């Protein structure tokens, strides 16, 4: 081999061409006779247009062999055994003795048709199975623009954008869909071409998989929402202490109605926790907005209207100069809680009914109505049926405010909640006053469960707080509760009366009413006949006290 053969090719490339077994050109790495010998052996074993490896005196090389009629050509380049040229493919070829078989298999894989386009978008290669699938002859697509050789090809777009397209459906003709990946190929930062790869033969299988995934995703979303809802419900109803069946049911009902856009009427005796229920409904429903409360029994009837509707500037003598928004307006988007709704005067009932029907509020002194959206929750301790029967409460208004009616059970029907309530009220009182939480003497809960509770939880809370005041910081004793029993004419629970277990109220309702009545009379006596003070001490409204005394 003469030296002139190697001119123009440096040591990073070698070319060996033979015709009828004779070397006709040997350039670069192939210039050396020993190198030629090694290359001839290796290229002989390599099929046409396939990669092969060889070991030359200068080191290992990989190359491609081309066989045509009586001519064979090998083009080789050295393998950088230190991997400094970043040539992953060559490293792979050197490291894996059957590397070519793997590449062969990939290129022939019927599930992974491969197409290669150069940076002009001209097809350089289509794997044989894919050629067949496209109806092309062997090498029939090479040299053609990608979009001419392959229906709906986007290889050119990928070359232009430099952005890979992964998992995209591609139509290869009527009813023939495939899912494909298209990736730009870069060399030294420049896009030199693009590779297309058919991922799945069966696009239907993919859409089935996608549908299943979507279903799983929406199920996951559903359970996530459920979990969030449960967490929210637990937090919002956590203030409703008590695990009796009645309380569990109430909590469940609260969670159910809170998410519906219906007006809720809460019924229950004084002090049973109606306002707490209203707050829980608000938190779970429109909790991100305001809850505006109005106690209709506490308000002189002359003020109810302006409180509810608000007024314009100078609407009446004494009205605010700039005018004022009423509770309806303040509660817009949130919750309006009308407490003691049974006490609304008849003329206001008519106006309230109009607002609830039309959801339009006019301030007093104005004729311009404003559309309002609020959630209405009302409560009353009164016997609403009786009020309707006696004509004191409008039938149609009742239907407007009571989309759903919740009943809060009196304490006597859930005496088993007393231990939990006792612990709750003790802790709340101590926390509020910065006091250490004392232990509670055994027997206190039983004693409390044995008392009549006409004022329900409010009365229980007052009794507990009163006892805490007269007890040591370490121990809340039974004596702290019974210290006034003698004065009240009651037997001392621990001494004379066998204590009953903490169980639901006995069924003898009339006897309980008698208890309540007796308690009411006793407290009234203690208060020197002052009904206002007696009602406060009992934790009941004055109207309920009158009822008990009637
Ligand atoms: N389930 C409960 N867990 C803890 N505290 C409660 C519970 N129910 C009521 N309370 C407490 O009892 C007191 C009275 O409750 P609330 O004011 O909600 O009763 P109400 O039924 O609205 O009374 P009224 O009819 O007199 O307005 C409050 O201090 C409240 O925090």
Automatic annotation (TrEMBL):
Residues 206-240 form a coiled coil. CDD domains: AAA. The keyword Disulfide bond does not apply. Pfam families: AAA_lid_14, HTH_8, Sigma54_activat. Keywords: ATP-binding, Coiled coil, Nucleotide-binding, Transcription, Transcription regulation. InterPro entries: AAA+_ATPase, AAA_lid_NorR, Homeodomain-like_sf, HTH_Fis, P-loop_NTPase, PAS-like_dom_sf, Sigma_54_int, Sigma_54_int_dom_ATP-bd_1. Residues 240-469 form the Sigma-54 factor interaction domain. This is Sigma 54-interacting transcriptional regulator. The lineage of its organism: Bacteria, Pseudomonadati, Pseudomonadota, Betaproteobacteria, Burkholderiales.
């Amino acid at each position: 081999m003469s030296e002139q053969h190697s001119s123009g090719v440096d040591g990073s490339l070698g070319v060996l061409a033979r015709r009828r077994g004779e070397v006709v050109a040997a350039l670069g790495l192939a210039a050396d006779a020993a190198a030629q010998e090694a290359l001839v052996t290796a290229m002989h074993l390599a099929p046409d247009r396939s990669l092969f490896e060889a070991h030359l005196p200068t080191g290992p090389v990989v190359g491609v062999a081309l066989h045509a009629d009586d001519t064979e050509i090998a083009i080789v380049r050295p393998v950088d055994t230190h991997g400094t040229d970043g040539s992953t493919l060559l490293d792979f070829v050197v490291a894996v003795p059957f590397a070519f078989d793997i590449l062969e298999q990939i290129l022939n894989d019927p599930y992974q048709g491969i197409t290669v386009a150069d940076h002009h978008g001209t097809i350089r290669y289509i794997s044989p199975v894919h050629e067949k699938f496209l109806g092309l002859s062997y090498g029939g697509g090479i040299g053609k623009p990608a979009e001419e050789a392959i229906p709906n090809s986007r290889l050119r777009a990928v070359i232009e954008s430099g952005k890979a397209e992964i998992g995209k459906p591609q139509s290869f003709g009527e009813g023939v869909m495939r899912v494909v990946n298209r990736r730009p190929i870069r060399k030294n930062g420049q896009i030199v071409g693009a590779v297309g790869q058919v991922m799945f033969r069966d696009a239907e299988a993919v859409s089935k998989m996608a549908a299943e995934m979507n279903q799983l995703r929406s199920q996951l979303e559903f359970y996530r929402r459920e979990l969030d809802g449960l967490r929210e419900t637990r937090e919002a109803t956590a203030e409703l202490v008590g695990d009796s069946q009645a309380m569990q049911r109430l909590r469940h009902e609260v969670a159910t109605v809170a998410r519906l856009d219906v007006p809720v009427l809460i019924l229950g005796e004084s002090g049973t926790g109606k306002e707490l229920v209203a707050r829980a409904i608000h938190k779970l429903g429109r909790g991100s907005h305001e809850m505006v409360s109005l106690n209709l029994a506490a308000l002189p009837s002359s003020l109810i209207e302006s409180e509810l509707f608000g007024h314009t500037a100078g609407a009446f003598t004494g009205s605010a100069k700039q005018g004022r928004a009423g509770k309806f307006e303040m509660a817009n988007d949130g919750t309006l809680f009308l407490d003691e709704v049974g006490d609304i005067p008849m003329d206001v009932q008519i106006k309230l009914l109009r607002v609830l029907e039309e959801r339009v509020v006019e301030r007093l002194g104005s004729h311009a109505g404003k559309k309002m959206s609020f959630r209405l929750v009302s409560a009353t301790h009164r016997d609403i049926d009786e009020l309707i029967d006696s004509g004191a409460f409008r039938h149609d208004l009742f239907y407007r405010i009571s989309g759903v009616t919740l009943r809060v059970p009196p304490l006597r029907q859930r005496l088993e909640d007393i231990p939990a309530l006792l612990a709750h009220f003790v802790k709340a009182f101590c926390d509020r006053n910065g006091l250490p939480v004392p232990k509670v003497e055994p027997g206190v809960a039983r004693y409390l469960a044995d008392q009549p509770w006409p004022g329900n939880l409010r009365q229980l809370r007052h009794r507990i707080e009163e006892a805490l005041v007269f007890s040591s910081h370490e121990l809340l004793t039974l004596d702290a509760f019974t210290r006034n029993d003698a004065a009240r004419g009651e037997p001392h629970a621990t001494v004379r009366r066998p204590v009953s277990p903490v169980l639901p109220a006995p069924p003898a309702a009339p006897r309980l009413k008698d208890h309540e009545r007796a308690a009411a009379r006793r407290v009234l006596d203690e208060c020197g006949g002052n009904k206002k003070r007696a009602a406060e001490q009992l934790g009941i409204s004055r109207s309920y006290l009158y009822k008990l005394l009637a």
